[in-house]
């Protein structure tokens, strides 16, 4: 249709609404934009490994490395320079240090505690989040202790409380229980308060699903090879949504300062419901498998990696998340800084 007098081209519909007007130019789109992603929304999960000047690649997460404490300090500094408010630490634990009860979790000199002390000393203003769960430390790869095939709840909570105290003493600002045992938030809160850690926050992995998207993470922390069975007796069934609200309600009642939904993108509906219902600080974890999917597709030239990264992160904001744990954190913060 190149004929200028063509009726189709001169036709003007009597439309009362033309939503496209607000999209006609960049300035107009910016003016009506409802959600923005900033560095303040980001939490950077960092993997730790023993040694000095060591960085080892995580095969299933291209671009992500396990860092020895000295490099973790440098990463913390980089995060602070990029205005990323907080980092979250996850240790790779040597199989020799793993046992049935995850005793290394309680060692004041374990990798996470040493990293906490070093980071607090050298980058004092970054928020320091530590993960509470036994899976980096158990020989069976589960988040709690086992008897036969059963993950024992109350016995696990007793140890998780000690693990939390161990991390708080090392300088953690935020304790993040990811274990999904019942009652652990209340028990941790009481123990922290009793030791005078009244300002140490709790970010509860409140609605954490038994997900296939954790695969690369288990690779990163070395549980993939040892994990026996699956985590479906404590992590949530992906089919459930009301149950997530009950889980979040329990954690908030027990004193959680912030709640989390995990994984992220496949569970945006849960983030939205949680934020609407509780109006509490709500975080999403864009997990290892989500990261791996985007990076793998980008590496194949199948999608624009930076655009897909930004779009996926903005989706969390739109769904109602106050912040996102993402392995893209330093990359996206750099991108946002450049475009500012
Ligand atoms: C374990 C834990 C997991 C993740 C964070 N803490 C994995 C699991 O439950 O097996 C997953 C994070 C990711 O996949 O990026 N307590």
In words, what does this structure look like?
With 340 residues, this protein is an alpha/beta fold. The chain has one domain (36-339): Aldolase class I (TIM Barrel), CATH 3.20.20. It has helices at residues 7-10, 26-32, 69-81, 111-122, 153-169, 184-194, 215-221, 242-253, 268-278, 288-299, 305-319, 329-339; strands at residues 42-48, 55-57, 65-67, 86-91, 127-132, 146-147, 150-151, 174-177, 201-208, 258-262, 282-286, 323-326. The strands form two sheets. The chain has an eight-stranded parallel barrel, surrounded by nine helices. A two-stranded antiparallel ribbon has the order 6-7. Ligand PBG is lined by residues 131, 133, 135, 143, 178-179, 214, 217-218, 231, 287-288.
Defining key terms:
alpha/beta, two-stranded antiparallel sheet, binds ligand PBG, 12 helices, TIM Barrel, eight-stranded parallel barrel, 340 residues
Give the topology, please:
Layout: H1 7-10, H2 26-32, E1 42-48, E2 55-57, E3 65-67, H3 69-81, E4 86-91, H4 111-122, E5 127-132, E6 146-147, E7 150-151, H5 153-169, E8 174-177, H6 184-194, E9 201-208, H7 215-221, H8 242-253, E10 258-262, H9 268-278, E11 282-286, H10 288-299, H11 305-319, E12 323-326, H12 329-339
Parallel strand pairs: 1-3, 1-4, 1-12, 4-5, 5-8, 8-9, 9-10, 10-11, 11-12
Antiparallel strand pairs: 2-3, 6-7
Helix pairs in contact: 3-4, 5-6, 8-9, 10-11
The protein binds ligand PBG.
């Amino acid at each position: 249709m190149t004929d200028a007098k063509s009726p189709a081209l001169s036709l003007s519909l009597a439309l009362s609404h033309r939503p496209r007007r607000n999209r006609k130019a960049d300035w107009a789109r910016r003016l009506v934009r409802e959600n923005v992603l900033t560095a303040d929304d980001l939490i950077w999960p960092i993997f730790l490994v023993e040694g000095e000047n060591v960085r080892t690649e995580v095969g299933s997460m291209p671009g992500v490395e396990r860092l020895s404490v000295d490099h973790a300090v440098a990463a913390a500094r980089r995060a602070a320079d990029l205005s990323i408010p907080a980092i979250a630490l996850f240790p790779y634990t040597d199989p020799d240090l793993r046992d049935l009860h995850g005793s290394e979790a309680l060692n004041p000199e374990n990798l996470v505690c040493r990293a906490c002390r070093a980071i607090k000393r050298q980058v004092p203003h970054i928020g320091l989040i530590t993960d509470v769960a036994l899976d980096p430390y158990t020989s069976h790869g589960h988040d709690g202790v086992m008897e036969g095939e059963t993950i024992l709840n109350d016995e696990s909570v007793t140890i998780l409380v000690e693990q939390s105290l161990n991390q708080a003493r090392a300088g953690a600002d935020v304790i993040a229980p990811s274990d999904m045992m019942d009652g652990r938030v209340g028990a941790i809160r009481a123990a922290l308060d009793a030791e005078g850690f009244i300002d140490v926050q709790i970010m509860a992995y409140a609605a954490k699903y038994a997900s296939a998207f954790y695969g690369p993470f288990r690779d990163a922390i070395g549980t993939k090879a040892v994990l026996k069975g699956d985590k479906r007796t404590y992590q949530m069934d992906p089919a459930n949504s009301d149950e997530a609200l009950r889980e979040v309600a329990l954690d908030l009642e027990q004193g959680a300062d912030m709640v989390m939904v995990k994984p992220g993108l496949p569970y945006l509906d849960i983030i939205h419901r949680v934020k609407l219902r509780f109006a509490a600080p709500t975080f999403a974890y864009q997990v290892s498998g989500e990261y791996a999917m985007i990076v793998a597709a980008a590496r194949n030239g199948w999608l624009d990696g930076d655009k897909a990264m930004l779009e996926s992160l903005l989706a969390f904001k739109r769904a109602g998340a106050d912040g996102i744990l993402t392995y893209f954190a330093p990359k996206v913060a750099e991108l946002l800084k450049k475009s500012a």
